[in-house]
Every structure is written in structure tokens, then in C-alpha cells.
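Researcher: I'd like a structural prediction for the single chain below. Treat it as a standalone chain; there are no partners to consider.
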Amino acid sequence: MNVVLFVAGLAVVTYLLRLAGVSAAARDTGDGRRSLFTALLPVALLAAVAALQAAPGGRPVAHLVVAAAVAGVAVRRLGFLPAMLLGTAAGALVTLGGLL
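Model: Treating it as a single chain, here is the predicted structure.
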């Protein structure tokens, strides 16, 4: 029963957060700080989720660290999608090759 309540609570919170985002976007007054905040908030949340998965128990997983480093360096020159593909390939090579 606790799991059902937990999932239902998560669903309600998710719905309310999405509703808040839509209503904030509808009320956009052209304020530079607010539009920058709404543009960067999803990136920050995704980075937080990735950071938690990259370091389970406080110790970083080698292939995820390598993938993030390669993608971070490559994104400056290649753009987002090629950098993500290159980072994924580097992480896979580390995992399959057992390099670290």
C-alpha cells in the first residue's frame, strides 16, 4: 500500500511541476532572467540525475566519468548530438575493454 501511495504522490507532484512550467511560460513577460531560468532548469535537473547515477555510493563509475568528459570536451566543437554519440562510444569502449 505504501508503494501505491508513493507512486500516486510522485504522479501528483510531477503533474503540478509540469503545470507550473506551462503556466510560467504562458505568463512570460520577456524578463531575461525568468526565460533563462526556465531554459536552463531542465538541463540542471538532468545533470543532477546523471550525477546521482554516475556516482552510486559516492564513488564515480569509470565508464560514465569518461563518457561525460569526452562529451563535455567534444560539445564545444561538434554540437550536442555528435558529442553525446562520441561520449557514449567512449564509455562503451571503456566498459567493453576494461580499460579503467
